[in-house]
Amino acid sequence: MDAIEQDWRFAELVALSWIEPDLSIRYAQNPSQVLAEFGLHVDGDGSTPDLPPAPELALVIEDFAAASAAKACTGCVGCKIAAN
User: Fold this and answer.
1) What pLDDT, in 10s, does the model give residues 65-77?
2) CA-to-CA distance for 2 and 82, rounded, in angstroms?
């Protein structure tokens, strides 16, 4: 595995740790095991990189499952054209 692929895999781990708190906790408890799950391995000296803290961003997760049950079409011009 080349350095670029390793960087991408670690970036994926970081991003997932920001949205999955359990992953972040598991990494704090056993970083070598979590790194291995992402195809990464500990250096010869046994040191593991720290995960950067999650950025302070406003995150809104919408549940669109309920919205799909409601009538979504408002009779816009696009629907009228497509129907003809």
Assistant:
1) 766 555 556 666 6
2) 50
Residue 75 has φ and ψ, to the nearest 5°, of: 75, 35
* Full 3-state SS string of 25-84: HHHHHCHHHHHHHCCCCCCCCCCCCCCCCCCCCCCCCCCCHHHHHCCCCCCCHHHHHHHC
pLDDT at 54: 87
Q: What would the pLDDT profile of 15-46 be if each residue is shown by its tens digit?
A: 999 999 999 999 999 999 999 999 998 877 87
| CA distances, 43 to each of 9, 32, 80 (Å) | 15, 10, 62
Could you give the 3-state DSSP secondary structure of residue 15? helix
Q: Which residue has the tokens 């391995």?
A: 41
